[in-house]
Amino acid sequence: MENRKVFLITGASSGIGEATARLAVKDGYRVVLAARSTSKLEALKDELGSDTALAIACDVSDWNAQRRLIDRALESFGRIDVVFANAGFSKGSPFYGGKDKPDEWKEMVLTNVYGSAVTARLALPELVKTGGHFLITGSVVGHITSIRNLYSATKWAVTGIAQAVRNEMVGTGIRVTLIEPGVVDTPFWGAVPKPGTPELHPDDVARAVMYAVSQPPHVDVNQVLIRPTGQPH
Ligand SMILES: NC(=O)c1ccc[n+]([C@@H]2O[C@H](COP(=O)([O-])OP(=O)(O)OC[C@H]3O[C@@H](n4cnc5c(N)ncnc54)[C@H](OP(=O)(O)O)[C@@H]3O)[C@@H](O)[C@H]2O)c1
Known about the structure:
The protein is 41% helix and 15% strand. It has helices at 15-26, 38-48, 63-77, 104-130, 150-168, 202-213; strands at residues 6-10, 30-35, 53-57, 82-85, 133-137, 175-181, 223-226. The termini are far apart. It binds NADP nicotinamide-adenine-dinucleotide phosphate (NAP). NADP nicotinamide-adenine-dinucleotide phosphate is lined by residues 10-17, 35-37, 58-61, 86-89, 111, 115, 137, 139, 181, 183-184, 186-188.
């Protein structure tokens, strides 16, 4: 009976999630890779090995898709030990001006806020069974006031989700870590203008994730706020 621990990552097709998947496998985990881009997930699964990685197409804004994600992870690997709710993006954030685009904000709020909350709701019962770890990707802008930015507000909501889940899970042994990156060089910036400040590499954030996960069970790293050196406040 295979007993390697299982690490499930949403937003695993790219950037921070992809880098975390590679480090998790290096640390001995099997990984469940979730995102919408099937071809990228399949390529990563092939690289990591099909006895070690499972690729599952999943739009986190869809409850039923996330239900299938958890069910398929359990069918294939039998357990879930770590869940990283990391899927997210920024698009059309300013409040003032701009063209009418009725669904632009909906997609972002449904992914960043609702999607992360659904991941928690569906994964926590499995993490209770394994004494597991829930991590969620917020942002520096979920910690400071950022102007012109509904994206920032979605990340404030993520900060709230992390704190609420941690409170709710007191007594279960589950650990909850909020990962709050500053600017990271990923395709995230394809949709919004880059600030032109120093940048982290996705591996820098992945190492912070693995630091939190690799602590002894009595140590709950509550949050990791990680900026590139020299990024202004
Ligand atoms: N890069 C930065 O500077 C920065 C800073 C702070 C926080 N963050 C946060 O870090 C997280 C990861 O972003 P990243 O920088 O690694 O950017 P990225 O390379 O663009 O990765 C975003 C990931 O989220 C997935 N995703 C987006 N919408 C999804 C949906 N509806 N359902 C499932 N998966 C979805 C994408 O895959 P598919 O498109 O294939 O679905 C992709 O795998 C995000 O939550 C982002 O807000 C990034």
